[in-house]
Amino acid sequence: xxxxxxxxxxxxxxxxxxxxxxxxxxxxxxxxxxxxxxxxxxxxxxxxxxxxxxxxxxxxxxxxxxxxxxxxxxxxxxxxxxxxxxxxxxxxxxxxxxxxxxxxxxxxxxxxxxxxxxxxxxxxxxxxxxxxxxxxxxxxxxxxxxxxxxxxxxxxxxxxxxxxxxxxxxxxxxxxxxxxxxxxxxxxxxxxxxxxxxxxxxxxxxxxxxxxxxxxxxxxxxxxxxxxxxxxxxxxxxxxxxxxxxxxxxxxxxxxxxxxxx
Length: 262
Ligand code: MN
Description:
eight-stranded parallel sheet; two-stranded antiparallel sheet; 10 strands; binds manganese (II) ion
């Protein structure tokens, strides 16, 4: 389960949020991440599919598995919280978790929030977890649940809130992972410009995000790197280094001696 501690030194980029298990061929995706040398956080949507992804991740030094519980699965998979707790010590990476208030149902929102609170409580006790969080139409509640002094790293994936919510998230200590769909949207572009450089990471959210006709692959984080390079007025290699350094900091444990990933 242990990765060599120096994968970031050997990497060409970071995909902080990729649903490796949901590609037509997870093995092919894994090989492409390995070839491109992109550190890839393989998120999962439910505890019952975690071990499959963990097994895949063992085949590549660049892929780390994340234990997740997608808010939209709270009704169908809510009974898996106990399994989540059992698997929890197996990885420092937690996601995809969060809240999704596209559902107008108050009961569903309440159950999502209770599940998210339970997960955040577990993570806060552990102190070294790295979280990739969904917050569609629910940014304020996500910030309220995670709080302002979360011990660990909380990353808002595909942030789509308001500028005010972005500022609140920054002051609460959140990080952001940016994908290629965001750089194509007016709101995304406006928000990216307001994100502090030292809190930005790259992601694909593949296979949900498409690049042309194909699901985004970890190497497509290059699209975001080129966009950020232009925005920050840096050469692409320096921009890549900023992101790799950010990943290094995001995954450094505050309370434990440094150890290899995950
Ligand atoms: Mn996702």
